[in-house]
Task: inverse folding
């Protein structure tokens, strides 16, 4: 599975290696071994030592500690030896080590944009050599700005990440977490909202969120039916369900069918797991 098709990447604390295999069979389509926020300071070395990728055939990503922490250098050395599918670079901003790391690393880099400065530099960061996909660190972003974690407050930030990704030719960005673990309706609604804005994935903090997030990103049946009608309407300008259809509308319809095909595969994997 390529990084561009990852939709539900699940965080696992790096100091809890007994959870790695469980995460791999949870229904997630990628695993993020977290060396940063999920790991307390006294356990940083333990987490780094426990790093491994051979427990699954899924893409394994590693979130390292920030460049201004005492653990950054050893984290980078560890991932260089391990060669996971990608490195998530937290508190991504220009002016520090991000640009050099992205340009020289043999691994794809996923900048985690979670500060006001980082968000303001999103288009430049997206264009850096070595950057594969942008990730929204919504909770830290709210803390930096002092704003609420609401759709209204974060609409501008989310829209900017989608636009920056498109301008740089990257895959659709990865949305931030939903803090609720058990409210399936809210989780699915958050994923659906992210998809409507142009996000292609959402960070997962607990296996119980996976099913709802997949459901949220999966095109709904009425969308699939509409897309099929549009694509069956022929070429040129025509009408479907009383609305005009031309080539840009057909492009959107093709995107819905492509997403439906991918989500159908994910749904089958979810059923098997």
Result:
């Amino acid at each position: 599975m390529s990084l561009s098709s990852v939709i539900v990447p699940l965080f696992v604390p790096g100091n809890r290696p007994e959870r790695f295999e469980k995460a791999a069979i949870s229904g997630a389509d990628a695993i993020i071994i977290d060396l940063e926020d999920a790991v307390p300071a006294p356990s940083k070395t333990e987490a780094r030592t426990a790093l491994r990728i051979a427990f699954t055939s899924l893409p394994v990503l590693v979130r390292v500690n920030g460049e201004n922490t005492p653990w950054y250098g050893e984290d980078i050395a560890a991932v260089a030896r391990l060669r996971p599918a990608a490195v998530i670079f937290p508190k991504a901003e220009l002016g520090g080590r991000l640009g050099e790391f992205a340009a020289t690393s043999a691994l794809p880099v996923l900048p985690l944009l979670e500060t006001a400065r980082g968000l303001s530099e999103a288009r430049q960061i997206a264009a850096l050599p070595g950057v594969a996909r942008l990730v929204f660190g919504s909770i830290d972003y709210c803390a930096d700005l002092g704003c609420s974690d609401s759709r209204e407050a974060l609409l501008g930030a989310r829209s900017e990440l989608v636009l920056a990704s498109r301008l740089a030719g990257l895959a659709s960005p990865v949305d931030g977490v939903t803090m609720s673990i058990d409210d399936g309706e809210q989780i699915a609604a958050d994923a659906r909202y992210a998809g409507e804005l142009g996000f292609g994935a959402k960070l997962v903090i607990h296996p119980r969120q996976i099913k709802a997030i997949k459901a949220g990103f999966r095109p709904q049946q009425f969308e699939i039916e509409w897309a099929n009608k549009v694509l069956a309407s022929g070429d040129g300008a025509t009408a479907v369900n009383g609305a005009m259809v031309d080539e840009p509308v057909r492009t959107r319809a093709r995107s819905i069918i492509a997403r439906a095909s991918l989500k159908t595969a994910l749904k089958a994997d979810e059923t098997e797991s």
Observations:
- The CA atoms of residues 15 and 47 lie 4 Å apart.
- DSSP finds twelve helices and ten strands in the chain.
- Residues 247-272 form the longest helix (26 residues).
